[in-house]
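Pasting as-is:
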Amino acid sequence: MQPVAALQTQYSVLQRFPENQVLDTCEELGIGFVPWGPVARGFLTDKFNEWSRFFDGRHAQVPEFRPEALESNMALLDLVRDWGMKKNASPAQISLAWLLAERPFIVPIPGTTKLHHLVEDLGALDIRFSPDELSDFRNASEQIEIVEVRSFESAHEDL
């Protein structure tokens, strides 16, 4: 029998349900954490806005891409954009760098089909958050009401 080496689930600045005991358990047991969707299906790349509409394709059925959710969740994207300007980085880079700074055992896997996105994503490795910056970012993001994302309870129902 092999010990569990890593856990993979959705986690991003937008989707934060693993913070409810999952990350602490991984840390306690020495299990790596591999978040998929670290840029929230492109939401945190700054390619959508509150007027974006999806009628078919992969975004059409995702609750956080409904018009009311996009409009409400723009405040979080604005925060990520602001931090990008502070750190001379793209929103995608800030989103990835935040995950890397959160815990040393987190290794995000951003999906991409374009070389320029891969190059951009790799730029997140050069961005650092001081402990105070990490705290400031977390406090600001927790003040924003996020709608249409998975809660710990809904994620648990999927198991």
